[in-house]
Structure formats: structure tokens, C-alpha cells
Amino acid sequence: MTREDYLALLADEADRDIPYDPEPIGRFNVAPGTKVLLLSERDEQLHLDPVIWGYAPGWWDKPPLINARSETAAASRMFKQLWQHGRAICFADGWFEWKKEGDKKQPYFIHRADGQAIFMAAIGSTPFERGDEAEGFLIVTAAADKGLVDIHDRRPLVLSPEAAREWMRQDTGGKDAAEIAVDGSVSADKFIWHAVTRAVGNVKNHWSN
Fold this sequence. Notes:
The protein contains four helices and eleven strands. By secondary structure, it is α+β, with helices and mostly antiparallel strands. α3 packs antiparallel against α4.
């Protein structure tokens, strides 16, 4: 998919301050600790900024966190401010999970059965546009259910396009965001998965879809 394919599902061109780019997205193996294009709202328009995937505030003396649980993030000391003021969307066509099979781990690629775009809820430290190596962002996760639980017990919180747009609005409060996280979530039965090569474990490897 192209960047435009994702953006067109969220807002008209007048509602986004993002250069038009008709080229297919060429990065398909994204790892924590790298910069990811993150979509958020500023001044009632959508913006796209490269932001580090991983969150480690100055007082945190452990490796950066990469996920935040949707069930607890809104009230947590660590994430409350991010939930209130740093909501964003990470778009993709799917994600990888690893499952232990015997004495090895097998990666699976998970995506929507209908081939539609995936909008993952994210929270992070604003302003996203600063572009430095400071505090970054986390993917919001939900409990896996139905067949997905066979692959992993957690999954990204994937929102419908309508819910994703509401999630990013600056005038959406934390309580409303919590409701969006529940009501706007794409259900597990919309996803399918298949085994892929273990070469995805090396971020230097990239594929087109």
C-alpha cells in the first residue's frame, strides 16, 4: 500500500499537513528502537513524524518499553499523561508475532483477512515533531482472543478508520479515548495469519507485499 492509501481512509487532503507520496511503502520489517512514521493531530490537522519506537523517561533505568496495556494505561503513573495528550496511530498492513514450537520459535505474519489497512493505537511523548532521540512512543495492546490467542496472549489494539481518527483528536479526553479503545477495536475474527521465514528476526531483511 502507499502512504496515500492509508491517509485517504482517515481524512481529506485539506485535513492533513502531509506531502502527497504515491510510492508504495518500502519498509516491511520494523523493529523497536528504530524510527517509525507516527500519525497524530496538531492544530486540527494530521501530521506524520518519524518517532522512536520505545519509551524511556529520564528517570527510567531499564530498557525502553515498547507496549502499553489498554486496560491499565489510562490510569497508570507511567502512561497517564501519554494517554491524555500523546495519542497517535501507527499504520501498517500487519504485524509479526513469534510462537514457540518445539525448541524453536516460529514467526507468524498477522493481517486483516479482507486486506484492509491496519491502524494501531499508540501513545507517546509529545511534541512528536521534535525529531530528536528523546522519549518515543509505545504500541497500545489488548488481550488476544479467539484464534489469535494461539499465537500470542497480547495483540496490538487495532482501530477502525473512524475510531482511529477520533483517537487522534486533541479534544478527545482520556475517558473518551478509553471508550474508543473498546468500541472502536477491530475484533480478532477479522484477522488471519501464516508462518513466515525466521529471517524476519533480522531487521536488515525487508520484503515488499
